[in-house]
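ugh ok fine here u go
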Amino acid sequence: MLLGIHNFINSQPILEPLTKQASKAGIEIRIDSPAQLADQLSAGKLDIAMIPAVEYLKQADRLRLLPNISISSRNKVGTVLLVSKVPLNAIRTLALDERSRTSVALLRVLYAKEFPSGLKLARHEPDLDKMLNQYDAALIIGDQALGVAKEGVSIYDLSEEWFSRTEKTFVHAVIVAREGVKVEAGIIQTLQNAKLEGLKNLETIVQTQANKTGHAVFLLRDYLKNKIHYDFGEEEMEGLMHFQTLCHQVGLVSQRFPLRFV
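structure:
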């Protein structure tokens, strides 16, 4: 069973324990960016993958969700940021982090009416200084967004803005299987066990990531313990369905489907 997952800091409470359990469970792990994983899954190169939530919504008729795991947030998250040198209604050029698609969709859902007409968008590597040197504003996600603080810019946390408008959880990523791929109960249990082990050992993971990334321990501890949620229960499903409705309204999702699980 080929399983794709990104290796951002927010995935470590799942990825780190899963790496230890994968071989025994018959899982081969492939690492890539969220956007690339979605493309590989669509092309049949993966059986299961953690993909951007919007990619699931776009292909909901051909994908099945795995239960009880997501990467979600409720209010401020700190790793999905719009950073702008000018007011929202004066942004003429905007660089988009090339690694994610849910954040781009969320940006459109939240701010499309506030951006000026003729806004020029460009995909860009996740380097905030380079992005802002060339563009009025930048959308940056993941580890490169964590702890961003710059003078002379406005920073908008998209998860915080989503929550202030909807009071709903935002689902950033889900784990899905391609239609026709038989996912044994043991695979699902292995993923659940990995999540539980990761949450139980968050402090160790925080220390490991601090050593690896150079981020402060207190920042990582707050992020993994308080900002990111890993369940996929009623609140997360409600938030995802609401996001689907709004994406449909702005033309990002062609059809609306009920959530379907393996």
